[in-house]
Amino acid sequence: MPSNPRIHALVGVIAGVSLSAIAAMAMAVGAVTGSVTHPRGRENLVVFVTQTAEKFPAPTAHAEMDQKRMQFSPFVLPVVVGTTVDFRNHDSVAHNVFSPDAERYNLGTWRPGTSHSHRFNALGVYAQACALHPEMQAYILVLQNPYFAVTKANGAFSLPAMPDGSYAVQVWGVKLSSADKARHFPLKVASGMATLKIAF
Ligand SMILES: [Cu+2]
């Protein structure tokens, strides 16, 4: 440690600042948490804020949907509207990517080592399919805002840090009924914190 008392004091201040900064970051990250239970399973459910007054520009970062071991990965991919998704192929066989929903696209069939992209400009749920392997399936959800999460195996989720306020939350899952998917759950965020238990 420095023997100069002034440097000593300075080190103390820096340590104090960074500690409180770390504490603030810890509070900001994953402060809106919760869990979903549903009789048809609690994994791979998308928990999302229905609509915010806040507007979000199209993200510049691309999202990724892979095809490996004869499966799409991830099984569900939520993105903000305007996001470009890069579709990859990490298998040794050719795969195709198409969706019959909303914007409808067929990106073609390609061998490993290349990728094709699609920019999602319309909200909605897009089933992903491969014309060569009908058993392959995945879903891309195009949402209005970035306040979403995919539940883990135990139904737990953690939304990105969001402004204080009252929101409505919906849950999407491939096995959920239309009525379940239409349900709105109130979420009130105060001081950046909230806990939301959703039970169907
Ligand atoms: Cu395929």
Question: How does the SSE layout of this entry go?
Answer:
Elements: H1 5-28, E1 32-37, E2 46-49, E3 63-68, E4 71-73, E5 76-80, E6 84-88, E7 95-99, E8 105-110, E9 115-119, E10 124-129, E11 137-143, E12 148-150, E13 156-159, E14 165-172, H2 178-182, E15 185-189, E16 194-199
The structure holds copper (II) ion.
Copper (II) ion binds near residues 132, 133 and 136.
What is the helix content? 10-25%
CATH architecture designation of the largest domain: Sandwich
Low-confidence stretches: 9-14
DSSP E strands, number: 16
- CATH-defined fold name of the largest domain: Immunoglobulin-like
What's the gyration radius in Å?
Answer: 21 Å
Helix-strand makeup class: mainly beta
Small molecules held by this entry: copper (II) ion
Largest sheet: 4 strands, antiparallel
